[in-house]
Request: fold
Amino acid sequence: MVVSRAFLPPLASAVFLLLLVAIGSLLYGAGPVSPAEALAVLAGGGTDEARFVLMELRLPRTIIGMVTGLALGLAGALLQSMTRNPLAEPGLLGVSAGSGFAVALAILLGATTATLTTLVAQLGALAGCALVIAATRVQGLGNDPVRLVLAGATLSGLLMALTSMLMLVDQRAADEIRFWITGSIAGKPLDMLGATLPSIILALVMIVMVARPLAAMALGEKAAVGLGHHPGRIRLLITLSVALLVGSATALAGPLIFVGLVVPFIARALAGPDIRRTLWLCAPIGPIILLAADIVSRLIAAPAEMPLGVVTALVGAPILLAIVRAGRMPSL
Reply:
């Protein structure tokens, strides 16, 4: 994917804003360390306590938040482009709920390793993606963005109900599942990235492979075939990429909704309908949105924290309503 000179200013601005938000994530957060003390640590000084809080608590949280935001933002853009539906989002269409249900079931059965949890989450996300593709093939459903989202919401509700039923089986597992499904990146060690990074890197490679064919498919499948592309193969790669990204993000932070809707919405507003530019911008905007939401979750109920999933829902729900009430869907 080649970046044109005209596109560099918004991309550079997004990267710069990401740097500022990441610094803000280090300055405000867990532990009795003030922003001034955190700045002293970043400058190479500070007390041992401040250094411990910054490096062992806030830095891992910031890195995991960036990776999670990247994964959800790209997954949302891919889903929207594949379904040609600006409302398509992993949390709304049941992909995240499928991943979440799979992880909850794994926790109930005693899964403890991050690698196993990530694999299970990706399998659940893959099943959710398959259901989304099947829904887009239903006559009258795939062409109606609102009806497709309602179908996805029904699936999500069913899976969340099944997840709640699992919590009735084992009280020990119920406490862990309850904390996890609210969505959070607090207290997550960097070791968890070891299980998810290979999947995310593989997904990024596949995204590079499908970016140009996906842009051709925006002209129609016949035009894409005429240009030498294979729509069926492209959809398969996108499905696998979304499953890897959403499964990894869910394993890291729980089933977060609306991030995959908000990020592509902002990226398209800045980049236009070209999916290649949208994907480039989703890379920094995804981490920006998630880290900003995480900072708000720390400050809004200090010294306690509001669940991250609640904050993302509060941010994303008005944007969803605005898109629906606009009367016409943005062209993809």
User: Anything to note?
Assistant: The domain at 64-325 is CATH 1.10.3470.10 (ABC transporter involved in vitamin B12 uptake, BtuC). The mean pLDDT is 84.
